[in-house]
Automatic annotation (TrEMBL):
Compositional bias (Gly residues): 210-245, 266-279
Region of interest (Disordered), ranges: 179-279
Record-level GO cellular component terms: nucleus
Family statement drawn from the similarity comment of this UniProt entry: Belongs to the SAP18 family.
Biased composition (Basic and acidic residues): 248-265
Name of the protein in question: Sin3 associated polypeptide p18
Top-level lineage group: Eukaryota
């Protein structure tokens, strides 16, 4: 499976292996990208993947789901809510808003003080359970399927947002107000890390195709190329390596000359990562 299949492409789920999606959640406020920026230890021998380095407060509020790039937010909501601990989603759940977004490393940023990389987010969409036309069902046998109870962006897919296998999905859960009204969409804007988290407001130097020579750029480290946890070289990824493909292209697009194809590369990780980045 390609790391970033094209939106709208037909995927035969009977013959195509799903991938492992890590979904992190929080109640009543968003997860900020800087919370996922962690300095790697000097010895990474026993580190299974990057997510194991995250703070326990974030790891404890996460689920793992096997799915496909054409998974809709409606499907994702049904899967996600079915495995949440009791009490996370209000009961009844009608009027609960779920806001989804992607969180992934900024491959154009430089490594920062403390060997931490910069992470960014991208909106996926929002769904409301029940919506304005919902009716509460006293008999569970008569209740509608979760996917039939959603309003908003339930039809949007992961591939439509240029999801790359290995990206994290974050979900903010907003229960209805005391009057039963649906909470409005929160303002999309990242709160900076405390004391700038070492970023210091410095912008990245120019790069070709988003590749860089720093540890967190596409040239190495936790980025998508080179060594360490990246997609290529001798690190955990074990992928194609060899530097940046030539030409002009953006994240999520197939690089010129082949780029992300369907052949597995390297050792791989659980859920069909196929040797790509392990987080």
């Amino acid at each position: 499976m390609a790391l970033q299949p094209e939106a709208g492409s037909n995927i035969d789920r009977a013959t195509t292996a799903p991938f492992l999606l890590r979904l992190f959640w929080r109640q009543s406020r968003p997860l900020d990208p800087w919370e996922f920026s962690v300095a790697p230890p000097a010895d990474t021998t026993n580190i299974p993947d990057y997510s194991s380095l995250l703070p326990s407060t974030i790891r404890q509020q996460s689920v793992q789901i096997y799915t496909w790039p054409n998974c809709t937010l409606g499907e994702l909501t049904a899967l996600f809510t079915s495995v949440l601990p009791q009490g996370v989603i209000p009961s009844p759940s009608v009027g609960t808003r779920l806001v989804f977004k992607l969180i992934f490393p900024d491959t154009r940023a430089t490594i920062v003080e403390g060997n931490r990389g910069k992470w960014i987010d991208k909106p996926l969409g929002s769904v409301v359970i029940g919506g304005s036309n919902a009716e509460l069902q006293d008999d569970p046998d008569e209740a509608l399927d979760m996917k039939d109870m959603l309003e908003g962006d339930a039809h949007k897919t992961l591939a439509g947002a240029r999801f790359v296998i290995g990206d994290y999905v974050a979900c903010s859960i907003y229960p209805p107000g005391q009057d039963g009204r649906v909470q409005p969409l929160p303002h999309h804007g990242n709160r900076g890390p405390p004391r700038d988290g070492g970023y210091g407001g410095r912008g990245p130097p120019p790069r070709e195709n988003g590749y860089g020579g720093g540890d967190y750029g596409r040239g190495g480290g936790y980025g998508r190329g080179g060594g360490g946890y990246g997609r290529g070289g001798p690190g955990y990824g074990g992928g194609r390596g060899g530097g940046a493909p030539p030409g002009d292209w953006r994240r999520g697009e197939r690089p010129p000359g082949g780029g992300y194809d369907d052949r597995p590369r390297g050792g791989g990780y659980r859920g069909g990562y196929g040797g790509s980045r392990p987080y």
